């Protein structure tokens, strides 16, 4: 079971269709069942039976998730692999001591892979879709896997399978999500 | 949240409107009417009939004319959105974008510049499930233009029902076309939607078709009770 976390400003918001449903679709097409929870209501018990967690993005105007980053404290002890997408990457970085800083990017960019971690194996340069008003200065316990001219694009915890990507893999880069699942979430059902 | 919906008259913008109505308050439709039939941003056949759709939905319409020159169209779109904000106090925009990064990024930038939210409730939606929802949720949609092989003239004015979706699905599997037509292969026009108080009846229409390129122009249409 893959836990998908909705970071939008409220539960069952209009943004859910845009930022959560496409990720649910990719995960299900990869053969994994999903359960979705809103970030404001996550409890320890929500991780029972879960083999990986994906934190989704939000609308450009929506930064409510960052108002109380301690809501994501459970990530520090999360026993399963994590992939944070855009707002999800910001939450991952901030909860481990990194910084969220203003950085507006809308549209396609070229991503250069610096470290060919399993997810990015065989990729050196690829186009990706960005939609963010903030980017991340990663915490010390994270390494940078990929960058663009503008900002850090992908990070990974130095000793745990916790990833963040600031670009939106649901647009033209679904392979990022499926490789994360294949590498870290065990066999699909 | 008060929202304005970018409306071309086609299925995607009106289905996005319906999704938005189920979550927030839609206060107006916004239409940019391009002079250029090859418009990069805006769907063209029958776009003037968005006024009739707005009336059917009992919503005000903000309509702006555009010269249809590629990047100048964006200034016209911005002007339309600004008018909608002044007249109706919108806090965000809704679009029917499904896959087009070109359209989505341009609307996102305008919304950001104006401090407005931007919603794309069909973004990367499962195309088959979406087409199914259109039919099940009570949308009456016709094909208003075809711009690609293998669409022949029989498609012009055809209602998108279960049989048409099955045929589109077979064509999408065989040819390089999208099931929803978002690649520009077809354009559509909505004559009824679950939120229409009255439906649109087409009184007179003309079709022009040549070499996989055709339009179904609605000459006369009226609102009738549902």
From TrEMBL, chain A:
Matches recorded under InterPro entries: Anth_synth/Amidotransfase, Class_I_gatase-like, GATASE
Annotated PROSITE patterns: GATASE_TYPE_1 (PS51273)
Taxonomic classification: Archaea, Methanobacteriati, Methanobacteriota, Stenosarchaea group, Methanomicrobia
Biological processes annotated in GO: L-tryptophan biosynthetic process
Signal peptide interval: none
Keyword terms of this UniProt record: Amino-acid biosynthesis, Aromatic amino acid biosynthesis, Glutamine amidotransferase, Tryptophan biosynthesis
PANTHER family to which the protein is assigned, alphabetical: MULTIFUNCTIONAL TRYPTOPHAN BIOSYNTHESIS PROTEIN, MULTIFUNCTIONAL TRYPTOPHAN BIOSYNTHESIS PROTEIN-RELATED
UniProt catalytic activity: chorismate + L-glutamine = anthranilate + pyruvate + L-glutamate + H(+)
Pathway: Amino-acid biosynthesis; L-tryptophan biosynthesis; L-tryptophan from chorismate: step 1/5
SUPFAM superfamilies registered for this protein in UniProt: Class I glutamine amidotransferase-like
One cellular-component annotation, GO: cytosol
EC class name: lyase
GO MF entry, a single one: anthranilate synthase activity
Domain Glutamine amidotransferase: 46-173
Protein's name according to its UniProt entry: anthranilate synthase
Organism whose genome encodes this protein: Methanofollis liminatans
EC numbers on record: 4.1.3.27
Record Pfam families: GATase
TrEMBL record, chain B:
Keywords associated with the record: Ligase
Pfam families: Diphthami_syn_2
UniProt GO MF annotations: diphthine-ammonia ligase activity
Keyword Ligase attached: yes
Gene Ontology terms: biological process: protein histidyl modification to diphthamide
Diphthamide synthase domain ranges (all copies): 1-222
EC number in record: 6.3.1.14
InterPro entries assigned to the protein according to its UniProt record, in alphabetical order: Diphthami_syn_dom, DPH6/MJ0570, MJ0570_ATP-bd, Rossmann-like_a/b/a_fold
Source taxon at top rank: Archaea
Record protein name field: Diphthine--ammonia ligase
Organism: Methanofollis liminatans
Origin organism lineage: Archaea, Methanobacteriati, Methanobacteriota, Stenosarchaea group, Methanomicrobia
């Amino acid at each position: 079971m893959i836990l998908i976390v909705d970071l939008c400003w409220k539960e069952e918001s209009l943004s859910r269709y845009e930022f959560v449903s496409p990720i649910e679709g990719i995960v299900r097409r990869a053969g994994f069942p999903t359960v979705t929870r809103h970030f404001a209501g996550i409890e320890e018990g929500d991780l029972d039976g879960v083999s990986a967690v994906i934190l989704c993005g939000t609308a450009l105007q929506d930064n409510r998730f960052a108002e109380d980053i301690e809501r994501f404290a459970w990530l520090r002890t999360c026993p399963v692999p994590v992939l944070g997408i855009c707002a999800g990457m910001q939450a991952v970085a901030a909860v481990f001591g990194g910084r969220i800083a203003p950085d507006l990017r809308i549209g396609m960019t070229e991503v250069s892979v610096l470290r060919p971690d399993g997810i990015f194996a065989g990729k050196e340069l690829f186009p990706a879709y960005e939609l963010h008003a903030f980017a991340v200065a990663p915490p010390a316990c994270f390494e940078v896997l990929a960058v663009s001219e503008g900002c850090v694009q992908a990070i990974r915890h130095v000793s745990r399978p916790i990833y963040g990507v600031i670009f939106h893999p649901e647009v033209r880069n679904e392979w990022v999500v499926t490789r994360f699942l294949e590498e870290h979430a065990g066999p699909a059902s | 949240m008060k929202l304005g919906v970018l409306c071309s008259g086609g299925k995607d913008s009106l289905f996005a409107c319906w999704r938005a109505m189920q979550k927030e308050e839609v206060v107006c439709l916004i239409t940019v009417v391009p002079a250029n039939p090859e418009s990069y941003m805006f769907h063209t056949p029958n776009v003037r009939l968005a006024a009739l759709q707005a009336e059917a939905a009992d919503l005000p319409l903000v309509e702006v004319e555009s010269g249809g020159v590629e990047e100048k169209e964006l200034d016209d779109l911005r002007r339309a959105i600004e008018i909608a904000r002044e007249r109706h106090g919108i806090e965000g925009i809704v679009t029917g974008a499904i896959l087009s990064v070109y359209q989505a990024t341009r609307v996102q930038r305008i919304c950001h510049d104006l401090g407005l939210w931007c919603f794309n409730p069909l973004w990367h939606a499962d195309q088959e499930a979406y087409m199914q929802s259109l039919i099940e949720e009570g949308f009456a949609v016709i094909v208003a233009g075809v711009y690609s092989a293998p669409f022949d003239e029989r498609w012009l004015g055809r209602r998108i029902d279960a049989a048409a979706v099955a045929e589109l699905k077979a064509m999408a599997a065989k040819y390089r076309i999208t099931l929803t037509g978002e690649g520009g292969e077809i354009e559509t026009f909505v004559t009824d939607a679950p939120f229409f108080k009255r439906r649109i009846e087409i009184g007179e229409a003309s079709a022009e078709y040549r070499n996989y390129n055709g339009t179904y122009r609605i000459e006369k249409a009226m609102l009738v009770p549902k």
